Amino acid sequence: MTIMSRAACHPAEGDYAEIGDMMMEKAVAAAKVNQALVEQWSAVLIDTSEQAQHLRQLMLGGRPLHADDILELAERWTAHGMRMLTRTMDAGGLALAPVHQQATANARRLSEQVS
Question: What are the residues whose beta carbons fall under 8 Å from the beta carbon of 77, sequence distance 6 or more?
Fold first, then answer.
């Protein structure tokens, strides 16, 4: 029986200090998840902004685009797409890392208390 279920079934026997610690740890883990995702998406937005600025410079440069310009633009946007894809795939791991770290630390600490 878990600490939470034990406290729910037998309120007088609940380890409320541990439950309070667990709640605080969950809040900290959620804040770390938020920070990791904000950093990741900020990098995506900065990268997208730089690509848009480059495109604007080409379009407003006052000269017709040459084949080299189009090739460079295609290469830049392909690289940008790969970075976006990679960052999006990494976001799941970044989001789960603080939660996993806290869950394994809790399991280790609670198993030591039982032993």
Answer: 51
* CA atoms within 13 Å, Cβ hemisphere of 22: 14
Q: 66 or 113, which is more confident?
A: 66
Distance CA 37, CA 55 (A): 27
Which residue matches tokens 């037998």? Answer: 10
Query: Mind listing the pLDDT tens digit for each residue in 23-53?
Result: 888 888 888 888 988 998 899 999 999 999 9
pTM, entire model = 0.65
Whole-angstrom distance, CA of residue 14 vs CA of residue 4: 8
CA distance 100 to 102: 5
Q: Is 40 within 8 Å of 94 (Cβ atoms)?
A: yes
Q: How far apart are CA 93 and CA 36, in angstroms?
A: 10
pLDDT in the model for residue 50? 94
Q: How far apart are CA 102 and CA 14, in angstroms?
A: 21
What distance in Å separates the CA atoms of residue 65 and residue 63, rounded to the nearest whole number? 6
